[in-house]
Structure formats: structure tokens, C-alpha cells
Amino acid sequence: MQVPAAASVSASEEAPAGSKLLDAAGAVYRFSRPHTIRGTLLACFTGVSRALIESPEFVAMLPALLPRAMLGLLALLLGNLFIVGINQIYDVEIDVVNKPYLPIAAGRMSPKVAWAIVLGSGAAALGIVKAVFSPLIFGLFAFGTAIGGLYSVPPFQLKRFPLAAGLTIATCRGFLLNFGVYYATREALGLSFVWQPAVAFLARFMTVYAAVIAVTKDLVDIEGDRKGGIDTFASRLGPGIVAKGAGVVLLLNYAAAVATAVLAPAGTFRSAFMAIGHTFGAGWLLLGLLKLQPDRTESLKQFYKRIWDLFYFEYAMYPFI
To answer: Would you say domain 23-320 falls under CATH 2.40.128?
Structure first.
């Protein structure tokens, strides 16, 4: 595995200590893939909010629960870092083509440092969950971490197979994250698990959404994926077909959300808010589809960014549906 040498090594060696520290911090920040961190944070905060909205009498317990909650959040972020980090370690030659700004591909972080961060974060995450939460939560977390790693690690490398790649991301970010955070919060409050309609809805909606993210993330990575022997729907069918197909699937997902709001028994959801919010989301997505120019890389990037923006928007609605 060859990593490009960092530019201007002599200049870097002469840089002040403070500048080196900032550069190292910036490399770790990029290594963490901030857009995935934002998604994890939103899932955590909104999952906790949802549980507390359902049981407002426990709000007074928040100060006592805060240390445990912060440990849970730390474990989620460390697990996220493990999964995205190990992907960059094994994808470095692909990233040199597709994402040359990532720290290993750019020569800003050595593979040894990357391995230390990944193994340390993975071990720490599992240790925290094992020590603080129930065996069920630990089992779910360990399972999610394992398949997240197998997504990138040979000989499994699930990302080589489009269907397996989509199922992996959908399972981790769609089902396990939302179910796990909600269940862990109720457990911390001393409540038995109840599969609330809003939680069931979000788990379903986000599982479909995460599967779409798994497909559309490859839209602008075709060149590097082909060189790395990675088979994706985008490389098979072309970015235009995949982007439009993904857009249609998401529009159907939004239509199902509106139908759920309208047809559910009275009192199940805040139906008006849920229907209007998802209609707005569908309109925002449709506008992106109409503006999409599949032959332009920048347009594909903007479309993918819009999908992530709508992903965040869904979590912003979640506590109130």
C-alpha cells in the first residue's frame, strides 16, 4: 500500500509546534468524516429527546443521567470513527483518485497513526458499552461495529457487492442506531422497552434512507472504484440512472411517510406536522432531482449533499412527530 508523500516536507518540519498541532487536529477531523459524525449526533440527541417527550416525568433525572449519557455518546462517536477510519485505511489507493483530500490519501496521516486511532477507538467504544450498558445494548453495538468493519476489511470487504454494501449501511445507520439509542435511553430511565409507533416509523424510514445513501455515495467515485475493483450500482448502470432511481425511491419513502401520518389512528402521531414536514422534504428532494445534471460531477455532489441535508432534517422532525 503506497501513500503519496506529503508536500513540502522540509517546510512542515520547520513549522511551529502550534501549526503542527493544528494540522494534526485538522487531519483527525477529516479522518472522522464530519458529515457522518453529524448524523450520529443527531440520531443520539433526537433519540434521547423522543424517549423523554414520551416520559416527561423523568426530565428531572437528567443531571444524574448525564454522565452515562455522555459515555454513550462518546462510544457512538468512537464506533463511528472506527468504521470510517478502517474504510480509509483499506481504500487509500481508491481515495487517491476519488477523495485525495482525505488525510491518508493526502499524506497528512501515516497508516500507522491511522491504525492506532482506529484500533484505539474501536476498543474504547466496546469497553465503554460493555461497562455501562446492558448485554443487549452491547450485543447490538458489537454487531454494528463488526459489520461496519467487514464493509471494508478483506477478504470480506462487503463494499465490493452493491447489495451487501447497501444492506450493511442500512442496518447500521438505519435500524441499529435508532433502535439502540432509544432502547438505551429507556433502559437508563429504568423503563421496559416499548416499540412506540414513532420509533418504528423512524427505523423503517431511515433504513430505506440509509440504503439510498449507500448507493448514492458512489455517484462521483466511479473512476477510483473501477480501478480498485469495487463493483457499485453507479459503475454498473451509470450515475444518471442511479441518481434518478435513488430519487424515486426516496420520493416513495416520503409518500409512505405522508400516508402513514394521514392513515394512522388518531393520536398515534402529530399527523398534520408529520404530513406537512414530509411533504416539504419530498418537495426539496424533487427540486434537487429537477436541477440534477448527471454528466456534471459538481451537480452530482450537490445532489448527494441535498440527500444528507434531508437526512439531518428528518432527525430534526423526529422528536415532534
So the answer is: no
CA geometry: angle 237, 243, 247, nearest 5 deg: 135
Q: DSSP state, 221?
A: -
Residue 49 to residues 38, 271, 308, 309, 320: CA-CA distances in angstroms? 16, 19, 21, 20, 9
Q: Quick check: 254 and 278 in contact, CB under 8 A?
A: yes
Query: Radius of gyration (Cα) for the chain, nearest Å?
Result: 21
| Residue 319 neighbours by CB under 8 Å, 6+ apart | 46, 49, 50, 53
**C-alpha neighbours within 13 Å on the C-beta side of residue 317:** 26
Domain ranges of the chain: 23-320
Q: Which residues contact 117 (CB under 8 A, 6 or more apart)?
A: 28, 31, 81, 85
The span from the CA of 136 to the CA of 176, in Å, is 12
Task: Give the type of residue at 317.
Answer: M
Report helix angle 62-90 to 34-54, nearest 10: 150
pLDDT in tens, 239-290: 899 999 999 999 999 999 999 999 999 989 999 999 999 999 999 999 999 9
